[in-house]
Amino acid sequence: MTRALFCAALWLAASAASAAPSCDRACLERFLDTYVAAVLAHDPAQLTSERELRFTENGQRLALGEGLWHTATGRGGYALKLADVERGQAVFMGTIREANTPTILIARLRIAYRKVTDIETLVIRNREAAEHIEEVGAPRSAWSEAVPVGDRLPRAELVRIANAYFSGIERNDGKGHYPIADDCARFENGQVTAGDPARVSARAHGRADGRVVGCREQLESGVFYYVTRIRDRRFVLLDPERGLAFAFAFFDNAGGDSRFGTLVDGRKVENGPAIPWTWQIAEVFKIERGLIGPVESVINAVPYGTVSGWSDWRDAMSSEPKG
Q1: Which of 36, 162, 225, 236 is buried deepest, with most CB atoms within 10 A?
Q2: Among 84, 104, 135, which residue terminates a domain?
Q3: Domain with 51 in it
Q4: Secondary structure of the chain in the HEC alphabet?
């Protein structure tokens, strides 16, 4: 009798778990919309969240309602919404108004049982970059297009391929493995820094020198030799249906002698910062047929060695991917 009751209890628990309210793509995107609306209203109560919710802004643990919640003044003109239905993760990459100034906002929400349990945000107060992002109007259609069912990759494979991009930039010597498609275009802080700007938008800003340099061509040249470490690579959102991998990471630039290098073509060059600093980055990759196509990122200059507030010290200093 006891065994029967025990088995019945297990069955009821399993049934309750399977009947737990799920949050599909549309549901996750609604949470992002609600989050932005709540920030603009300066009212955390508008957000359905766990009491013990964890919230960070630019790596700092804050009480919900602090930081941008005090200073947001209006909607932005660009919004890319990403969803990981399997893990209940949603990411907003876009712009907002802070003190009536265009500002870049990245917000990651974790949703469980239709409640927000984690909020991780980057607020990048770079008006020029925010304005350039808004000039393109809308995100590339590739971000919302499904990959054919037969070509979809498992989550671990999406991490492996996207991580090869980070590994290719870390101590870049032009000799690594670069799984990048010919039509790759990287849209970074409102500027197309690699690939054809027309692949992003007819209104997209290209490189200041006007040259069109491919994503793979850059890595094969060794031009990123000065990036000494790419650490805390957290692949927090994966979307096999659309072939997307979104990650947070830190690019450490040691400065000093690391500025001097030799490119693959033999040229001696000086590049990178003179003093130590770190780029805090949020980046999404579109992966099809094993190759990286569209790339979109935002970067923020932060003190050297800054950590995310979401990893322990060992992981924060590691170049190993987590996802």
Answers
A1: 162
A2: 135
A3: 21-135
A4: CHHHHHHHHHHHHHHHHHCCCCCCHHHHHHHHHHHHHHHHHCCHHHCCEEEEEEEEECCEECCCCCCHHHHEEEEEEEEEEEEECCCCEEEEEEEEEECCEEEEEEEEEEEECCEEEEEEEEEECCHHHHHHHHHCCCCCHHHHCCCCHHHCCCHHHHHHHHHHHHHHHCCCCCCCCCCECCCCCEEECCEEEECCHHHCCCCCECCCCCCCCCHHHHHHHCCCCCCCEEEEEEEEEEECCCCEEEEEEEEEECCHHHHEEECCCCCEEECCCCCCEEEEEEEEEEEECCEEEEEEEEEEEECCCCCCCCCCHHHHCCCCCEC
pTM exceeds 0.85 for this model:
yes
Q: Please check whether residue 321 lies inside any domain of the structure.
A: no
* Residue 189 and residue 122 in one domain: no
pLDDT in tens, the chain (323 residues): 444 433 434 333 433 333 345 899 999 999 999 999 999 999 999 999 998 899 999 999 999 999 999 999 999 999 999 999 999 999 999 999 999 999 999 999 999 999 999 999 999 999 999 999 999 999 999 999 999 999 999 999 999 999 999 999 999 999 999 999 999 999 999 999 999 999 999 999 998 888 899 999 999 999 999 999 999 999 999 999 999 999 999 999 999 999 999 999 999 999 999 999 999 999 999 999 999 999 999 999 999 999 999 999 999 999 999 99
